Amino acid sequence: MEKKDVIIIGAGPAGLTMAYELLKDKKEEYKVTILEESQDIGGISKTVKYNDNRMDIGGHRFFSKDERVMNFWKELMPIQGINSFDDEKLGREKPLVEGGPNPNTEDNVMLVRHRVSRIYYLKKFFDYPITMKMETLKNMGFIRTIKAGFSYLKSIFFKKEETSLENFYINRFGKVLYSMFFEKYTEKLWGRHPSEISADWGAQRVKGISITAIIKDMFKKAFGKKGDNSNVETSLIEQFWYPKYGPGQLWETLAQKSQDEGAILKKGYKVEKINFKEGKIVSLECDVNGTKEILTGDLFVSTMPLNDLVAGFTGIDVPNEIKDIAKGLPFRDFITVGLLVDKLNLENKTDIKTLGNIVPDCWIYVQEPEVKMCRIQIFNNWSPYLVKNPEDKVWIGLEYTCQEGDKYWNMSDEEFINFAIDELVSMNIITKEQVEDSHREKIKKAYPAYFDTYKDIDKLINYLNTIDNLYCIGRNGQHRYNNMDHSMVTAIEAAKNIKEGVSLRDNIWNVNTDKEYHEEKAN
Hints:
This protein is α/β, with parallel strands linked by helices.
């Protein structure tokens, strides 16, 4: 039997999962080629190595409500039950392997991690999601607390039509809490006011989180159910898995396993043209270090941004409306600054033990409206193996969103790093003298956005579904702000359709959109 030639665009979570799913039990039926524009594996889920320290771009918790994904991860990397680092070995029996961890050794494991994420607002810490405990009320102050309570009660009885992300938040938290903890942060993140953003973003990212969900979670914990992640909203989980050397380690492991099954991985291949004949894709034209290379295939799987995909269509008459929708789909670009400091000027007032007794947060949401910074990652708390000297130094990531070509994007590395340091100093988190090393990373099209022509994306999806041998998967491939697990599920569903000869694409596009996943069970 002649093998079907499958070409996958992108070596991120979705693309790699797709390759492995097709080949693991059907390698005699498919020839799979993965094209990756960069020299890295994992897309935005890669791990950046700098001066023996490692950066997780955006922070990636390995947790899913889909058992297929949890089993997939566990099969790739066994779970090692280290949850704290107060033992005498500190989980560092030997130095880092030169050039990175070896996927065939005991380095290739997942750690079990505490989830701690808090909000930094008014130069105080608030739990995220917001909790109704005494410390929260004390930090808010009596007057704010009373206003927030009445505002929430009003939101219960007078629901707004969810025509925007603003109304989505107000319906769940009330106007006062929305104004305190969501409005300015969302505007920093997306560069748009929440009233201009579709409620779809909230449905996908915030899911069932509300005051009611938080109170339910508090009662469950009070009656002995603390730590049970099996039936809890993703933002309320207390533990998650994490690869010992960062998320890129898992994707590098999957890339190797896919190649062991027969996949061909080509790095440095930028897809510029998608060539059609008689309504079907027949080949891709790639730029490879300045030279053109054409690859033919039978089936094509795309994780590239939808606007780039449609812009590259040749040999087919794409309706102008479809071109305009694809071209107008917005993104936010991402900048992160890694800083190595000798300490943070933040006191650990929690009962969670940490290496060096630093604050236990994986990341801190920065709500302070006078700074542009969105979040602070503390890499030591994701895994001490990300840091060369975790006992003595703190390695943090300062996260920003912007638009490619704006003043922040165009700053030199030195200018932007100094800008970021100044913001952190203004929040009294560090002093300039505490900074020992720094590094900047820029990521294009990191976050698909939900405004502008997004309102018409269903028309684009319907059009793409008419192309029989094209499958769109992953975050940018569907212009959907998915987590890693959702991106993987789009690949699992697409591979299933291909293997079973199913022509419909509904199950692929419907990942992370079903109402049951988003809303509380009681609703």
